[in-house]
Specification:
3 helices; mainly alpha
Length: about 90
């Protein structure tokens, strides 16, 4: 049987800008040490709501988890750049 080329993967979905508030860095600097702040709280809530709605079948919620992952990645990249620039 001849080898066939595997199908191309589906394109990665495009997401809107993360829901991180514009003044998040200022709030982050002034927060208490033990207080947890999540810049991607909206994406996190949507992914958890999807899990609840779909009886905790994670495969049904791939889009929401990818969106949350992208938000966290952009936020961490931004924080890293600000740290390197000496602004944090």
């Amino acid at each position: 049987m001849p080898l066939t080329k595997p199908p191309t993967p589906p394109p990665k979905p495009e997401f809107d800008e993360p829901s991180t508030p514009k003044d998040f860095n200022k709030k982050f600097k002034s927060k208490e040490t033990t207080k947890y702040m999540n810049p991607c709280a909206l994406e996190e809530k949507e992914s958890m709501k999807c899990l609840n709605d779909n009886n905790y079948d994670k495969r049904q919620c791939d889009y929401y988890f990818m969106q949350y992952k992208e938000c966290k990645k952009k936020w961490q990249d931004n924080r890293r750049a600000l740290r390197r620039a000496g602004q944090l």
